Each structure stands twice: as C-alpha cells, then as structure tokens.
Amino acid sequence: MIMRKFFQYVLMTVTAMMVTSCASDMDGALVKTDKSRTQFVVGDFPAFRDSQTRTVGTEDGGKTSWVDGDEILLSFTSKILGEQRATLTKTSSGWEIKDSPIYMREDEAPAVKALYAPNYEWKDNTLSLKDGTVEGTGEYIEVDCDVHSADEIIVPFNNATRNYSRLRIATIKNEPITVGTEYFTPVAGSREDSKEYSLTSDNNGNVFLYGSFVKNSTVTIKYNGTYLANHAFTGTTENGKSYALDATVISENSTDDIGTAIANKIADDKTNINLILTSEADENVFENIQYGLMEASNGTINLTVMGCKKIPSSAFKHFTMLKSITLPDVEEIGEYAFANCSWLQKVVLGNLKKVYGNKYYGGIFDGCDPKYYIDLVLSNDQKVMRGKEIEDGRYCWTPDMENYNNSMYHKSQKFLDYDFKSIKCGYQTYP
C-alpha cells in the first residue's frame, strides 16, 4: 500500500513537470507578427502577355504595379497552431497586416500562401466574394511565400504564373454592357454551359473576363439589348495571355469623322460596324457612312446603327456591301431606304410608326428580292401596318391596334406588302 502511494506520487510529479515544461516552451516560442517586427517583402506585380498584334479599342495592359490600398490575402498553416488568416495592405510606408496579428512559433516555419484577388475577402476566416462582385471579373493570383523567420516573409509575386487568361472587351465608355458566355470557366469557379454577366465599361471603354475558354466557347456582347459583337473560339486560350474582342462603337459629333472612322475599320478588315447617331441624323451623315464603307466587298458588312429614329429616303440605297443591317431604335423610314441592297440577308428593325412608299413605287426594298434572300426581325411590340395615300401624294404605312406577332401576316411572312424569306417577331419565327 505504501509502495503504491509512492509510485503514484512520483508519477504525478513527473507529469506536472512535463506539463510545466511544455507550457513554458509554448509561451516562449510564440511570436506575434506585426509592423514593428515582421517585414513583408512583396515582389513586383506580374504583367499579362498580350496576344494582340493590332490595336483594338483603347489598349489596357491591366494592373502593372502595386498602389496604396492594394490588398493581399494571406493564409498561414501550422501543424501546431492550425490555420490563421490575415489581410496584407499596401500603405505609403510598406505592407502591413490590417486586421488581427498572426502568431508564429520560432521553431516552426508555417506554410504561407498569398492571394491577390480584389473581388474576394476573408469573412469569418473563409474566402468569400465581396458584395456586388461575381466570379471571373477580377484577377486571382496565388503564390507560395518564403518564410525566412518571423522577422521576414517573402511574397514572390514577381515569379507568379496565372492559370487563366484575360479577355478584354473593347466597347462603349462608361456604359452597362451585357456579356453572354458559353463554356467559359471563370477563375476560381466552375465551367457553365451558359452564363450572362452584367458589367459596366470603364473610362477606356473596356470590360474584362478572367478565366479559360475552350474550342467552341462563345462570347456575345449586347448594349441596350442590341448585339454589338460575338465570337466563337477556335481553340483553348493560353494561361497568362490577354486577348481582345472588338465591340467598339463609333460615335462622332462630326459627320466627316464617322466616314473616316468607318474607313479605318474596313482597312483593318473589320466586318462588324457599330454606330451611334442622333435621333434624326440627316442625309449628310448617311453619305459619310457610305463613303466609309466604299472599300468593303459586296455582302460582307454587318451594320448596326443605334440611336437613330428616322431613316431618310434613299439613306442606304446601293449599299451593296451590306450583309445585314440592325436599326433597333428606328420608328420612321423613308422611300427607297434599302433600295438595291442586293446582297442584304438580314434586317432588324425597331417598333415602326411610319414607313413611306409601297411595293410598286418608292418601296423601301425596291430592287431587292426579300422573298428569297432576306430574314426580317421585328420589334416584339410591332403592330400590323396599314398603308394608304396621304395628302402630299405619298404612300404611308402606319400601325393599327392589332399585334403583328402571330397575326395572319406574320404566319404568311408578309410585311409592308413584301414577302420575306422568314419573319421573326417576339419569340416566334415563320416559317
């Protein structure tokens, strides 16, 4: 009995000594990282490689250097201390941890990862998207850090490689743009068969997507519901490369500038031409548009004209270079507007209120053969048009109360007394 108590006493004494020793060792080895002790050495910001050989819109190489206010998300992993999170912020005096300090052991170098992802933040120690942001619209660069000691941590962004590409979409400045994608994998996200992004262009007229496209991935750009551009990828994009898609819009105050700007596009082998005009652009504007398109080959140009509500008589007469024309805002069209556009295949119109001329004299498609060659797309709100002679001897079509969509005229592919290859109105296309 005495011997048993003796051994129990010895065991309790040894255990107490071990616990005391361990506790002392833990306290002595812990070091708090803060700006007074720990120096974070952050490498230069890595630039994208540009895949373009020609200028598209206003070039933007993206971020090229660190600036005050930039944030780097840090994660520390220790076998003993577990996981810790911190946000490193660039200030005028260097890089500092802005939230709770990180604790390290002097006898153990933790694994430290750094992430530059301006759309993300730590929330309850979990990486989360910031409010109002979506995957694939910002950088996401990860690096492993070198921990020399609690006094110095190297963040080697200068050696970072991206596992994604960047798509720069050049379009209208400071405007909401809708970008539709198919088979696009946003960085840090999962591939979706189809997704739509609502983005706002910057001061240079650019919007960006970060991620990976594969063969047959598509991108479609719309402004106020009007298509500006679409592109199908013929192969997989390369990591670390920047690509550019031209969805630019020509909007000039001087009519002469419109013609020159269009001519420059044609010289650069562009076939999609997007314009914004005033609501009642006059004949001089359309003459300059024709001048700009003169060097284009027959049936090659897809022309979109936004903003213009009134198309003058003969505005696009003899525009044989047109393959398609889109006029989403048009309400009034004059006689012979598309006369002798013999290569025209598709016409998209706004909600029409007046159209002058008839099939036999002054018709807007005079000299064309819409029955066999033209697909017509009408506004969802289009009404059936009724024609009659008016006071000045002109013939004028105006809407009545009947919806055109699914009317007898729609089903028989007839509009303004013309027969068309097909007519789409609303969600229905005939035949």
Automatic annotation (TrEMBL):
Keywords: Signal. Residues 1-23 form the signal peptide. It comes from the Bacteria. InterPro entries: LRR_5. Pfam families: LRR_5. This is Leucine-rich repeat domain-containing protein.
